[in-house]
Design brief:
The complex is a heterodimer of chains A (276) and B (297). By secondary structure, chain A is α/β, with parallel strands linked by helices. Chain A contains ten helices and ten strands. Chain A has a five-stranded mixed β-sheet with strand order 3-2-1-9-10. Chain A has a five-stranded mixed β-sheet with strand order 4-5-6-8-7, covered by helices on one side. By secondary structure, chain B is α/β, with parallel strands linked by helices. Chain B is 32% helix and 15% strand. Chain B is globular and about 50 Å long. Classes of the chains: A alpha/beta (276), B alpha/beta (297).
Chain lengths: 276, 297
């Protein structure tokens, strides 16, 4: 686990997850976060997969000084592993996951791979006197899924206790949610910039956290959490995906907002909310 | 042959699984009582098997309280047949107040009224409710041979009733259905589920544990079907469900939901006292490790 750089104690910060090579959404989210006064930008991993041209996203992140935590995709691609480690058992899900992974692996520049290997798995920062722990899946496993409907309060309190944090931020599922717990702790899944949230809308999401105005007088309190929708040129992304011969099922998700693949991992509640 | 003594080694010789933290609790809410007498049941559940009894809501409360203190992530309600338990719906409500739950059923009691009540309970909870229904084969000829005459059509009717109430049931199939483990078999099974009215079928394939009734239907474990420390890896052991789960019956807390008929697998009366390493000395442990299976959804 990395130590806390002293400079990382912003009053307002943006947290991006699951970029999946969606460079257009990433650029729009960065612009939006700056416009909203974010002093620091973080990305919780899974830079590639699903979308086209995986070399673009790392360049944008570095240009805008986004601090990046390693996701399972960076671990896999960085080490030339055979798959993305998402652990699908359904043959259809596996086939599409493998198509996305093989394309990303083949098109990721070598310089990105060495950078991926160097990324930290967890990062600790501070905001308004609160200890934040940034990770990809969960603090204990890079590829653990923390869904809203299967992450009960006692379990989240345990994670906060075990990992000595006031706030845990994660991604990996692609769906954003947050819980403020009876202890005052917070767990926030920041969602994904790479594809829509399986809700029939084409926008994607990121999380904006702010220190409350009363912090100086009253001391640490739960951070204000805002999930921000990001509209971007999704039709341009779809055209690029088609040019790269990525599956039409992926393009359909970008154009409709409904997930069409890799549905096996969804819990009943989240699956019921989708179309497929 | 399932136990360690029969295999001729002392318990110290087996690979041990560390308990990494209690994520999963199984409740045998129906004990070993079932309306069916399936020929492959690994704990020989039946209408007259009372070796583990029905759990009352009152009996479950201390375990639920303990589970909350320990930060448990998910719950499973099983048996036997859970819907034989007259308190199953209040038990489910109490469980879902605390975390996500999965109910494992043969589907025979899933009528319209029950499904309507289940839907209301699911909608009132912040957490996910999964219903797992067992089908053992491609049609009545396979399924009914294992589960009894007429059970295939009744289970399918239950599955349809769930779908009509917006559930997406997980259909569990064991490898007693020949060929289901391969991609072709899985695809064929998905087609079967589409044909009976599940528009978004979800399936889980389970191996057969060669204990209980299954030892008589096919065969029991051979003495070589045991794990040894030099044939296991730390990652493989950590992936086993006994590294993060326990099973509760009216007789106490067991290492996993498979071994509740093994006295050596009973680890205590309360959850907290069972959070210790376990030696993988049983034939069933060999099946879990080699197949990579978890009973979890």
């Amino acid at each position: 686990m990395s130590s806390i750089p002293a400079a990382l104690s912003p009053r307002r910060a943006a947290f991006f997850g699951g970029v999946y090579s969606n460079s257009h959404a990433l650029e729009e989210a960065i612009r939006d976060a700056r416009r909203r006064g974010a002093e620091a930008l973080f990305c919780l991993g899974d830079l590639g997969g699903f979308g086209p041209h995986p070399g673009r996203v790392p360049a944008i992140l570095r240009e805008h000084r986004v601090t990046v935590v390693q996701g399972n995709y960076e671990d896999s691609v960085g080490h030339d592993r055979p798959d993305c480690q998402c652990g699908y058992t359904d043959p259809r899900d596996n086939r599409f996951a493998q198509i996305a992974y093989d394309y990303t692996l083949a098109n990721t520049p070598a310089s990105c791979k060495s950078w991926y290997r160097s990324l930290v798995r967890t990062l600790r920062i501070e905001m308004g006197g609160r200890r934040l722990l940034l990770c990809h899946g969960s603090p204990r496993r890079q590829n653990e899924f923390l869904w809203r409907s299967t992450s009960p309060v006692p379990f989240l309190e345990r994670l906060l206790r075990d990992y000595e944090a006031d706030v845990i931020l994660c991604t990996h599922t692609g769906l954003h949610w947050g819980r403020t717990l009876p202890s005052g702790g917070q767990v926030i899944n920041v969602g994904a910039l790479g594809r829509p949230a399986n809700d029939g809308r084409t926008n994607v999401w990121y999380a904006l956290l702010s220190v409350g105005a009363a912090y100086e007088a009253a001391g640490p309190a739960p951070l204000a959490v805002e999930f921000v929708p990001v509209a971007y040129d999704h039709e341009r992304l779809a055209r690029e995906m088609r040019r790269e011969m990525l599956p039409e099922e992926f393009v359909e998700t970008i154009l409709t907002g409904w997930w069409t693949t890799c549905l096996e991992i969804l819990p009943a509640r989240e699956r019921e909310a989708g179309r497929f | 042959m399932n136990g360690p003594q029969e295999a001729g080694r002392s318990c110290d010789a087996w690979p041990k699984v560390e308990m990494t933290g209690l994520d999963t609790v199984w409740f045998y809410v129906a004990g070993t009582l079932c309306n069916l007498r399936c020929t492959h049941c690994f704990i020989s559940c039946s209408p007259d098997n009372r070796s583990h009894g029905m759990m009352t809501l009152q009996e479950m409360h201390p375990y639920l309280d303990e589970a909350a203190r320990l930060g448990v992530r998910e719950y499973y309600l099983t048996g036997g047949e859970p819907f034989l338990n007259r308190e199953i719906l209040p038990i489910l409500e109490a469980t879902l107040r605390q975390g996500p739950a999965t109910v494992l059923t043969n589907g025979l009691f899933l009528d319209q009224l029950t499904c309507r009540k289940l839907r209301a309970i699911a909608d009132a909870s912040d957490y996910s409710l999964d219903i797992r229904v067992s089908l053992d084969g491609w049609g009545p000829e396979d399924h009914d041979r294992i589960r009894g005459a007429g059970t295939f059509h009744r289970a399918v009717k239950g599955i349809r009733a769930l779908a009509e109430h917006r559930f997406l049931p997980i259909v569990t199939v064991t490898e007693a259905a020949e060929g289901v483990g391969g991609i072709d078999g899985r695809t064929r099974f998905l087609e079967l589920l589409l044909s009976v009215g599940l528009s978004r079928p979800r399936i889980k394939i389970l191996p057969l544990w060669r204990i209980g009734a299954e030892a008589g239907r096919a065969r029991g474990y051979e003495s070589w079907e045991r794990l040894s420390s030099d044939a296991t890896t730390p990652e493989g052991l950590a992936a086993l469900q006994c590294s993060s789960g326990r099973a509760v019956t009216t007789r106490g807390v067991y290492v996993c939901p498979i071994l509740i008929d093994e006295p050596g697998a009973r680890l205590g009366a309360r959850l907290e006292e069972t959070l210790r390493p376990f030696g993988l000395s049983y034939g069933a442990c060999h099946t879990c490790y080699v197949s990579g299976v978890t009973c979890r959804t």
